[in-house]
Specification:
Oligomer: single chain
Structural class: mainly alpha
Number of strands: 0
Number of helices: 22
Helix content: 55-70%
C-alpha cells in the first residue's frame, strides 16, 4: 500500500497536481516522511522543481522544509534543478525556505548559481545573487570561477549581469589553476562581444600572464586562425595589449635608454628621437597581428586565384578540329583563349602571392621595425602585393567581359588603376624621402658626436690641485 502511494505521489509531482497530493497526504500522514527515508534517486520535490510546478513545490516545503536540503543521485538539490531550468517563481519559493542552498554543490562542484549562469537563466541568476552574493565567488574544478563558466558555455548575458552586479576588479581578473583569466578564455574561444565588453566596461588586466607566461595577445596568436581574429586583435591593441615578448623587450630596452639619457645629459634631440622610435615601434606592434591576418588572406586569395584562373579549367579532353584547337582536362581556359592575358595574369598573381608570403616572413622573423629601413622594406613589399592584386583583378575582368563592352570596361579599369598607382606611388615616394632624410640625420648626428669634446670630469670640491 505504501509503495503504491509513493508511486502516485511521484506521478502527481510530475503533473503538478496539488489536489491528488492533498488526497494522498490525507490517506497517509507519514507519506512524505516515508519518501524522505526511502527515496533512492530523487524526491518528489526534485521532480516538481525540475518541471516548474511552483504550487506543488510550495505544498511540499510547507509541510516538510527539510526536503529542500535533499540531494538526488547527482548531488543536485531542488534549487539546482529549478535554477538550471530558469523557473524564477519556483526558485524564489525554495530560497524563501532555505536560502543557504545557494552554496550547496553537486558532484561536479557546481552550485545553483553556476548552473543558472551556464544555462543563461539571467532572471534566476539575479535572484540567486541577490540572496547569496558570496555564492558567485565559489570556484569549481580547476579553479574556474562562475565567469569562466559563462565564457566556456557562451553565455554573454549571464556574464554581463554578473560583472554588473558584482562590480569587483578582483572578481573580473580571477585566474583558474592554469592562470587563465576570463580575457584569456574569451580570446581563445573567439568571443569578440565578451572581449570588447571586458576591454571597454571593466578594469580587466589586459596584459595579465597565464601559467605559461602568455598574454591574451599570445593566446590569440597561437589559436586557430578565424574571421574574428582581425577584430579581436584590433580591440586588444586599442586597449594597449602586448605580447609577452614585447613586454619583456620594452622592460629591457626602453627603460635603460631613457635612464642613460638622464645620466649622461645627452642633448634633447637624441632623447626625442628615442621616444619617437619607441612610439613608432608601439604602433607597429599594435598593428602586427592585424597585418599578419591581412597578409594571410592575401596569400590565400592569390593561391586560390592561381588554381582557378578566370574562365575556369577545361573539364574534358578534346583532340581538336580544323577550326578549334585541342585541349586537355584540367588546363586553363584563358591560357588557350588568350595567351597574352594569361601571361600577364600569371605574372601579376605570382608577384602578389610572393609579396604576401614575404610580408608573413618579415613579420615572423622579428626584424627591428623601429628602424626606418626595415619599415621601408615592409612598406614596399605591401605596396607590391596590393598593386599586383589590383592588376590581377583588372586582367580577370577584361577576360570575362564580352567583346561588346570591353572598351567601356577597359576605360573604367584603366582610370581606376592609374588613380590607385598614383596614390601608391605617392605613399612609396613619401616613405622613401623620409628614409633618406632619416639617414642624413643619423649620419649628421654621428659625425657631430665624434667632433663634440668630452665632458669635464666632475671632481669633489675638497680636492686640492
Amino acid at each position: 500500500m505504501a509503495e503504491i502511494l509513493e508511486s502516485k505521489l511521484y506521478e502527481a509531482a510530475a503533473e503538478g497536481n496539488v489536489t491528488i497530493f492533498l488526497e494522498l497526504i490525507r490517506q497517509d500522514h507519514l507519506l512524505l516522511d516515508r519518501v524522505l527515508v526511502n527515496y533512492a534517486i530523487e524526491t518528489p520535490l526534485h521532480v516538481a522543481a525540475m518541471l516548474g510546478h511552483t504550487d506543488f513545490v510550495k505544498e511540499i516545503i510547507q509541510r516538510k522544509p527539510e526536503f529542500t536540503r535533499e540531494l538526488d543521485s547527482r548531488g543536485s538539490s531542488p534549487l539546482h534543478l529549478a535554477s538550471a531550468k530558469g523557473y524564477v517563481d519556483t526558485a524564489k519559493a525554495l530560497l524563501f525556505v532555505n536560502p543557504d542552498m545557494c552554496l550547496a554543490v553537486d558532484i561536479e562542484e557546481r552550485n545553483p548559481l553556476h548552473l543558472a549562469a551556464m544555462k543563461g537563466q539571467v532572471h534566476v541568476l539575479n535572484e540567486l545573487v541577490r540572496v547569496r552574493p558570496q555564492a558567485a565567488r565559489v570556484t569549481v574544478s580547476w579553479g574556474e570561477t562562475i565567469l569562466h563558466l559563462c565564457v566556456k558555455y557562451g553565455q554573454f548575458e549571464s556574464f554581463k549581469a554578473l560583472v554588473d552586479v558584482m562590480n569587483n576588479q578582483e572578481f573580473v581578473n580571477a585566474k583558474d589553476d592554469y592562470g587563465m583569466t576570463v580575457l584569456h578564455l574569451a580570446v581563445a574561444y573567439k568571443q569578440i562581444e565578451t572581449v570588447k565588453f571586458l576591454l571597454t566596461s571593466t578594469s580587466v588586466e589586459v596584459n595579465g600572464l597565464n601559467a605559461n607566461g602568455l598574454t591574451a595577445m599570445d593566446v590569440l596568436a597561437q589559436s586557430r586562425r578565424g574571421l574574428k581574429d582581425f577584430d579581436i586583435a584590433e580591440s586588444l591593441r586599442d586597449a594597449g595589449a602586448l605580447r609577452a615578448a614585447e613586454i619583456l623587450h620594452l622592460k629591457t630596452e626602453t627603460t635603460p635608454l631613457i635612464a642613460q639619457n638622464v645620466a649622461t645629459n645627452q642633448p634633447d634631440t637624441e632623447y626625442q628621437w628615442v621616444q619617437k622610435t619607441y612610439k613608432k615601434e608601439d604602433w607597429l606592434t599594435r598593428k602586427r597581428d592585424s597585418l599578419m591576418v591581412v597578409a594571410s588572406l592575401m596569400a590565400t586569395m592569390s593561391f586560390q586565384a592561381g588554381l582557378t584562373p578566370p574562365g575556369g579549367l577545361w573539364q574534358d579532353d578534346f583532340t581538336g578540329t580544323a577550326t578549334e584547337r585541342s585541349h586537355e582536362a584540367g588546363h586553363s581556359i584563358i591560357a588557350d583563349k588568350n595567351q597574352s592575358y594569361y601571361t600577364q595574369y600569371l605574372a601579376a598573381n605570382t608577384r602578389s602571392f610572393m609579396a604576401s608570403m614575404s610580408i608573413i616572413l618579415l613579420l615572423v622573423t622579428g626584424l627591428p621595425f623601429q628602424r626606418r629601413f626595415f619599415m621601408w622594406i615592409l612598406t614596399v613589399t605591401v605596396w607590391i602585393a596590393i598593386t599586383s592584386m589590383a592588376i590581377t583583378y583588372r586582367i580577370s575582368l577584361l577576360f570575362i567581359t564580352p567583346k561588346s563592352q570591353e572598351l567601356d570596361v577597359t576605360q573604367v579599369l584603366d582610370y581606376a588603376l592609374r588613380a590607385w598607382l598614383a596614390v601608391m606611388s605617392f605613399l612609396l615616394l613619401a616613405h622613401t624621402i623620409r628614409l633618406t632624410l632619416n639617414v642624413f640625420k643619423k649620419v649628421e648626428y654621428v659625425l657631430g658626436k665624434k667632433e663634440r669634446p668630452p665632458p669635464p670630469l666632475p671632481y669633489p670640491n675638497n680636492i686640492d690641485f
